[in-house]
């Protein structure tokens, strides 16, 4: 029996995406292009009649703004919103604020890709109290410990229990759920949904600003599984081009 509809939306282009900087938990705004991507995402939701009943977003403004713009364009600006740090981007440790191409040139391809896409090797930790650290940020005051770096496995560990305990309940109740989040937090969720191995997830990149729809059913184990494995991008051509652009970051 099919149940809720899930829509995953990576935020539109941010200022640091445009500057090719590692971003992680640094709270940067959208560019004009990113604002346009948010609008287009909302139009796609409307055109495909995928109208969210509830929004889950990270605590970072690039995801929050993208959601606001998209929902406005889809005439769903009024739906309830749940914000949670567990949807935040992967914390990029001491790489936050560093240029990707320069980092690749300085440390070599292998180390660069290990930090960017390995499942369980985190970048070096950021020093607490420095410009791009979040250890004193009031929005994380409730956390036992604010991360100083994270690998994708760390994101899986914080995000999947939240998915199972909270977001899944809305989907099992038949709702259409929009999640606006980030390249790596969405990779963690897609890995879980599609059962992608620790090795293969390295090759999966999520484009900015294009809704990815999953139709879900409740499996024998009581967990949600996709009827359309891999999901369905509402603009597949733009998604393929966008994913290729993410994969090649560091080349410029
Ligand atoms: O910098 C970041 O936080 C992420 C997403 O933009 O980058 P990457 O795709 O290199 O993991």
Summarize the structure.
By secondary structure, the protein is of the alpha/beta class. It contains 8 helices and 7 strands; from the N terminus they run βααβαβαααβαβββα. It is globular.
Do you know the CATH topology? Rossmann fold
Count of DSSP strands: 7
Mean pLDDT, nearest integer?
A: 97
* CATH architecture grouping: 3-Layer(aba) Sandwich
Which ligands appear in the coordinates? 2-phosphoglyceric acid
Secondary-structure-based class equals alpha/beta
Under CATH at level 1, the class stands as Alpha Beta
* Count, helices: 8
Question: How many strands, what sense, and barrel or not for the largest sheet?
Answer: 7 strands, mixed
Please mark out the parts with pLDDT under 50 across 5 or more consecutive residues, or reply none: none
Give the helices and strands as they follow along the chain. Answer: EHHEHEHHHEHEEEH
Oligomer: single chain
